[in-house]
Amino acid sequence: MAWQQKRGPLRCGQCRRDVSVTAGTIFESSRMPLRLWFRAMWLVTHQKSGVSALGLQRTLGLGSYRTAWTCLHKLRRAMVRPGREALSGMVEVDETFLGGHAKDRKNAGRHVGDKSLVMIAAEIRGDGIGRIRLQPIPDTSKEHLLEFVQQSVVTGSTIITDGLPVYKNLTKLGYTHQPRIVEVARDAASKLLPRVHRVAALLKRWLLGIHHGSFSKQQLDFYLDEFTFRFNRRSSPSPGMLFYRLVQQAVLVEPVPLESIVKGA
User: Fold this and answer.
1) Could you write out the DSSP letters of every residue in 160-211?
2) Does residue 121 contact residue 91 with C-beta atoms inside 8 Å?
3) Which residues does 26 contact at the CB level (< 8 Å), separation at least 6?
4) Which residue, 21, 123, 237, 242, is the most exposed by fewest CB within 10 angstroms?
5) Coil, strand or helix at 234
């Protein structure tokens, strides 16, 4: 049992310590009042494509860009539901590049350079796309490619990939592997793996439209989490449900210090 003090937090009737209803959540130690947090969460979920830190600052009348930037990054950390179910059924898997500039596009291949390499997994649902998973990886080594599949897709599912030899190891891990050999034609990959390429195109368009294509590699993981949150709930009939889900998950996520946010942790 606790009671509200005239000023400040609640006081526990048993241990006599001051406590807060925001303790243990992403709102902990925030100077923003909860009403302002809820307005920010409504804006984030109500806008179809989301909102930038500058847009949030202007709409809410926040005193600094840094406050808006921190608020959005805390919310992005609440967009991944703990213990979420892995993908299942038939799943397309492929990689894509984000950002940077390839000096030699003709021979760029799967070399990362100054670009960010992102893995994409997309469930096949008839002619459409089910749920997706996104994750940045440092390279296309066996370790990183197979680890992504194991973390993202239920064992026993059917994995559809291009002809990269490393994917042959999926059968040893309990998956049914269906490789599709990409021809030399420029649009062959998009025809053989249409869902992951559609997701990649939408992701790049979203980053360009909301964030002007600018992002740091340290924060990329959390931008991908936001895109996944939106994509997997794109058929929700009401933005109020997205708001409810975000609030629900926000109280389950542990506090994130500003130092950790800046470092991308």
Assistant:
1) EE-S-GGGGGGGGGT-EEEE----SSTTHHHHHSHHHHHHHHHHHHHHHHHH
2) yes
3) 74, 75, 77, 78, 250, 253, 254, 255, 256
4) 237
5) coil
Rg of the chain, C-alpha, whole Å: 21
Residues 6+ apart with CB under 8 A from 233: 241, 242, 245
Q: For residue 229, give every residue at least 6 positions away whose Cβ sits within 8 Å of its Cβ, in sequence order, or none.
A: 79, 80, 246
Which DSSP helix (H) or strand (E) runs through 247? Answer: helix 239-250
DSSP code, position 107 = G
For residue 192, the one-letter residue type is L
Output the CA–CA distances (angstroms, integers) from residue 99 to 199, 204, 210, in the order listed: 16, 9, 14
Nearest to 224 by CA among 134, 146, 147: 134
pTM as predicted: 0.84
The DSSP bridge partners found for residue 132 are: 122
Q: Are 153 and 177 in contact (CB under 8 A)?
A: no
Structure-derived torsion over alpha carbons of residues 192, 91, 236, 240, reported in degrees to the nearest 10: -120
Looking at residue 257, what is its pLDDT? 76
Pairing of strands 2-4, 90-98: unpaired
Mean pLDDT of 63-85: 90
The position carrying tokens 């994917």 is: 167
CA 21 to chain centre: 27
* Edge-to-edge strand ranges of the sheet holding 2-4: 2-4, 10-12, 18-19
pLDDT category of residue 83 using cuts at 50, 70 and 90:
confident
Structure tokens given for 155: 């064992």
Residues β-bridged to residue 179: 161
